[in-house]
Write a structure and sequence with these properties.
By secondary structure, this protein is of the alpha/beta class. The protein has helices at about 40-45, 75, 85-100, 105-110, 115-125, 125-130, 155, 200-205, 245-255, 270-280, 295-305; strands at about 5, 15-20, 50-55, 80, 105, 135-140, 160-170, 175-180, 210-215, 220, 225-230.
């Protein structure tokens, strides 16, 4: 599990107060002082990790008083009011409770933002954070953490936007077709505010499961395939990375159709260059983040390619193309 995690409590009734749990290092050192409310829970998670969600969202500009800092980190271990958090974060916590997930990782809350050593250490662990999450919640429509993303989706709010009809194939089999009417874009998603941010590219690639809130519909993707509410993409079991899931990656990340449609294609030299190309077109609030914001993907490519300092010469992936 991540170094820190937000505990939402056992029941929905308990969600008025959340707790920042500090799991410390792998050997259990560096945790909070004994006697604080999260001591017992932290110790239990270190022994037996639990499923957790991760949030992919836009911070936006303006006031960010909800961040964890050196001044409030100890108080947050004792509990803090959920009602004082920005709406996107509250919405993500509501999704977790609806899915019966007790723990959630959110960067603004789980990294001490004004502690440079802590930020440097935790910001490069995104591969572990997102790849090991039980589910990642992607808030596409919210340009700011204060906007929120729950509520009536377009296809649910305006049923006339979609229509369906069936064609009889034989006496026992029908094909059902879905039409989106009058949406104006011809697409069910994007480019959303989330898809324009540099940090969120790796957050769309690393997780095993993602539920996308696009404003028009929810879209689900996992290692078995992908499906959307309007059913123009049907859920089906497919090989990892091809078929429906690759279509999801083209839609939510922006990879070109010319890229090899095998998921493993992202882990080749050409795949890495495609990642860098897409990343370079995205926005960063801080230019100094340009390397760390893609570090998780760089670690994934190196790990998946099996390239180490000792075998770079024999590797089929040219070292010059590999992330450092």
């Amino acid at each position: 599990m991540p170094r820190r995690i937000i505990d939402l409590g056992d029941t929905i009734d308990e969600m008025e107060t959340a707790y920042l749990l500090d799991l410390g290092t792998s050997d259990g050192s560096g945790t909070d002082a004994a006697g604080t409310p999260d001591s017992q829970a932290s110790a239990a998670l270190r022994v037996s990790p639990e499923p957790y969600a991760a949030l992919s969202y836009c911070w936006g500009s303006g006031e960010q008083s909800h961040k964890t800092t050196k001044a409030n980190v100890r108080q947050r271990r004792s509990g803090f009011a959920v009602s004082l958090l920005p709406k996107s974060i509250r919405d993500a916590m509501s999704v977790c409770r609806g899915l019966d997930i007790r723990y959630i990782w959110i960067d603004a809350l789980c990294i001490v933002q004004d502690d440079e050593p802590d930020w440097q250490r935790e910001s490069v662990r995104m591969l572990d954070v997102y790849a090991n999450s039980h589910i990642t919640i992607a808030a596409h429509t919210a340009a700011s953490s204060h906007d929120g993303f729950l509520g009536a989706q377009l296809y649910g709010h305006q049923p006339s936007c979609q229509s369906s009809f069936q064609i009889e194939v034989d006496e026992s089999k029908y094909l059902e077709f879905f039409l989106s009417i009058g949406t104006g874009t011809g697409k069910a998603w994007g480019p959303s505010p989330l898809m324009k941010r540099g940090w969120t590219l790796q957050e769309a690639i690393l997780p095993r499961r993602i539920v996308h809130f696009t404003g028009k519909e929810m879209f689900w993707e996992c290692e078995e395939g992908a499906t959307c509410e309007c059913s123009h993409i049907s859920h089906q079991k497919v090989a990892v990375g091809n078929g429906q899931r690759w279509l999801a990656k083209q839609s939510f990340c922006g990879f070109s159709a010319a890229t090899d449609k095998q998921w493993s294609g992202l882990l080749t030299r050409e795949g890495w260059m495609e990642i860098v190309n897409m990343y370079s077109s995205r926005e960063l609030s801080k230019w100094s983040d340009r390397f760390v914001a893609i570090a998780g993907l760089a670690q994934l490519v190196r790990r998946s390619s099996g390239v180490t300092k000792s075998n770079e010469v024999e590797s089929p992936i040219l070292p010059a193309y590999l992330p450092v």
